[in-house]
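Section 5: illustrative case.
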């Protein structure tokens, strides 16, 4: 329980103490005079502060922390301009079910509702994005609001919360109090549902699991792997949730991303039991909502999800189970021993992994002297298993999804909302959290320049992130769609880019340019050996749009 003393402190100091009590070790911010009381209190705290160059970058860094740790990442920004810039991070966290707290400074209470300088109606702006948006009007109630924000951010389907904090409120003196404890229960499955699931799985000849969503832990992934092994259960991962299962494991069947293996899609559609665990199967993972019929019962589907409002919203499962993935997996370990191994089941599982290996093994031919498939395969063969890859959105990402093999939990930090500009901020955040790990940001040219200024943040804090910029002089994914619908009619997708290697050096980092596939390995090793934040500028042909699609094919050449 909380206790109150006669000692006074600013509400800003009380807020920082509560963040620390809740286990917040890092905050990401762009400073503003609206929350100076918080910035002052951070000096005397044990919280590490990362000063960013753009509020969108700060929000993405907080999202990356929430995505990797399962605990709310925290970003701090100032009033309307800062909050508006941070909105993209709130959208990412909303779509990706990432716990995130955005603390946004607000104009002082006496001038609110007068359209004061930089005033913003946070509820109106973030109402459709955040799980909860609020502005406490009483300094003594700030602890109540912050506790509620943390609870809401992780409850059910996790997501972002926005708190507007008035400047005068944060500076107000209030009695010191011990913050209320933070306890976050997770919904667990009923025994009857577990028994029904086990009966279905035992009877199935061709089952498959699809892992997705947030709220996983390394321990839960390991436990599910043991369960899958005991039942010879093949496992796929949904869009950008690849590290939930080791890609080199004999049971891994591939990922349901953009450009998914057609054999994997067919396998899922022909399965007699599909366990959808932790995810929602959004538009990408569901292959434009064609994997299962929307609005109809899917008799082979068992859907496990922590939010009851999601169950049945798109897919009517034969067995819906409201449970967090961690709680469901923990319960699986207490189930009865599996039946004797079935040769039919084993053959089915082996076929899924063989299809995946065929799909991801051989580099696809590409126009020009640089083949991105060969580069990604080189990275997968030479990076340590715990290396963390971060990326945003663009055509280049198709090569990551297809050819890189993630082997450990939390090693791919990328938005399922496919938001550009995410990779560099995420890499900064991951290197802050894990200074001993190899951290890469993979970015397209258009993608990089949406938040490339955060490279300066890496330099400021001496974070040796490795940024690989794939430069085809175009917004590649848009060019792909454009060529499909309007072949040969290029409009608004060409880019004239700077020398990204020189850009890195201008910030005080290391930069190198790569123009052939063979040049990549020595360039990467040199960049890594520099010990500096580095940019490897890889120039490749725009005609190679995806691993399987070229301009020549689209234009009938």
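Designed sequence:
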């Amino acid at each position: 329980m909380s206790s109150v003393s006669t000692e006074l402190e600013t509400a800003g100091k009380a807020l920082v103490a509560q963040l620390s009590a809740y286990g917040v070790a890092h905050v990401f911010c762009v400073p503003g005079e609206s929350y100076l009381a918080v910035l002052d209190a951070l000096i005397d705290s044990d919280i590490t502060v990362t000063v960013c160059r753009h509020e969108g970058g700060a929000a993405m860094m907080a999202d990356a922390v929430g995505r990797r740790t399962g605990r709310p990442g925290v970003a701090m920004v100032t009033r309307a301009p800062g909050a508006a810039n941070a909105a993209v991070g709130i959208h990412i966290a909303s779509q990706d079910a990432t716990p995130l707290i955005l603390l946004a400074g607000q104009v002082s209470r006496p001038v609110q509702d007068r359209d004061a300088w930089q005033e913003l109606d946070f509820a109106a702006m973030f109402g459709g994005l955040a799980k909860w948006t609020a502005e406490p009007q009483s300094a003594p109630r700030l602890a109540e609001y912050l506790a509620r924000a943390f609870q809401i951010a992780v409850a059910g389907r996790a997501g972002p919360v926005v708190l507007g904090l008035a400047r005068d409120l944060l500076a107000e003196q209030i009695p010191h109090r011990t913050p209320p404890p933070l306890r976050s229960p997770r919904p667990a499955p009923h025994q009857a549902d577990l028994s029904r699931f086990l009966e279905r799985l035992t009877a199935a000849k061709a089952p498959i699991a699809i892992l997705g969503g947030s709220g996983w832990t390394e321990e839960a992934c390991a436990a599910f792997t043991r369960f899958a092994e005991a039942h010879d259960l093949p496992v796929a991962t949904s869009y950008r949730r690849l590290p939930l299962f080791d890609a080199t494991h004999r049971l891994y069947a591939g990922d349901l991303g953009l450009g998914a293996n057609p054999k994997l899609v067919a396998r899922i559609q022909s399965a007699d039991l599909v366990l959808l665990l932790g995810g929602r199967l959004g538009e990408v993972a569901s292959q434009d909502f064609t994997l299962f019929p929307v609005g109809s019962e899917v008799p082979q589907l068992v859907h496990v999800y922590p939010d009851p409002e999601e169950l049945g919203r798109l897919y009517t499962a034969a067995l819906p189970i409201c449970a967090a993935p961690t709680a469901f997996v923990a319960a699986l370990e207490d189930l009865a021993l599996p039946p004797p191994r079935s040769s039919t089941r084993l053959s089915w599982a082996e076929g899924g992994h063989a299809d995946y290996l065929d799909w991801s093994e051989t580099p696809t031919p590409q126009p020009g002297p640089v083949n991105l498939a060969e580069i990604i395969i080189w990275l997968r063969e030479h990076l340590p298993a715990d290396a963390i890859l971060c990326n945003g959105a663009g055509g280049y990402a198709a090569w990551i999804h297809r050819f890189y093999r993630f082997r450990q939990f939390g090693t791919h930090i990328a938005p399922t909302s496919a938001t550009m500009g995410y990779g560099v901020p995420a890499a900064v955040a991951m290197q802050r959290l894990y200074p001993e790990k190899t951290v890469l940001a993979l970015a397209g040219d258009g993608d990089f320049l949406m938040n490339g200024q955060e490279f300066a943040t890496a330099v400021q804090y001496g974070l040796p992130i490795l940024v690989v910029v794939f430069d085809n002089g175009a917004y590649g994914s848009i060019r792909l769609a454009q060529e499909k619908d309007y072949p040969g009619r290029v409009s608004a997708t060409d880019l004239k880019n700077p020398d990204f290697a020189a850009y890195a050096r201008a910030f005080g980092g290391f930069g190198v340019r790569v123009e052939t596939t063979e040049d990549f390995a020595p360039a990467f090793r040199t960049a890594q050996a520099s010990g500096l934040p580095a940019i490897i500028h890889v120039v490749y042909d725009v005609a190679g749009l995806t691993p399987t699609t070229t301009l020549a094919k689209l234009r009938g050449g």
